[in-house]
Amino acid sequence: MSEIREDLVLYDRFTEAFTRYIREIENASESTRRMRQIIDDLEGSQRRTAAASSDLASTIRNLAGTYLGFQGARSMLDLSDMIASNTARLDMMNDGLQTTEELNQMIFDSAQRSRGAYADTAAFVAQLGNLAGDAFSSSAEVVAFAEQINKQMAISGTAGQQAEAAMLQLTQGLASGALRGEELNSVMENSSMIAQTIADYMGVTTGELRELASEGQVTATIVKNAMFAAAEETNAKFAEMPMTWAQQWNQMKNLAIQAVMPLLESVNQL
Predict the structure, then answer these.
(1) Last residue of a domain, one of 46, 71, 96
(2) What's the predicted TM-score (pTM) here?
């Protein structure tokens, strides 16, 4: 419980603002469902679709206003800078099979499925795509790989600085073409499940995996294929896990960030 309290204090200053924030998210979600139903049933009715759009826009504006007050001006400027930086780096690694906006949506959906933070997932995808892009066949594959990493981290209980350290070493290993001694050691220390998945794929023990890594035989292709080969099992284990408060908080933050993103993009253009 102490960890949950620390997470909540870190992101908010809670009390009434949090309750209001949850209510706005629920309203936005309900408005989105209504909007989709109206579009499906009344495709040719521009007037009613416009009315639904106005209702949804009003709800999102309320959510954005709540989030702005919730975070504070300084935090929102930091968030705006982070989104601008991530978007620029995503634009650089985008293979052109989708727009950067569509790639961002793919990342958002992936973060929601894996209960991860959108900002962290976007940064990880951008890092992988720009530093280790040759290991992947497409931008979509980078997102899928990041989702599997997020899920394995969640299953093994890896979060915070441990997750950041493992992701950094993993990215550096993939960028160099192979996961070597130092990188593998960091991954094993901070997320043993990922190392075990690679070892299982190669048919070796974790001790033997260390030896292979020192010889440069744990290649980027092997690491990628190991994650995807274990995807079905990983997804099944992940689905059985109860959602934690921290994961619920991640999903709420993601929805709020998505709601205020147009406003933040406008701020960055000033």
Answers:
(1) 71
(2) 0.72
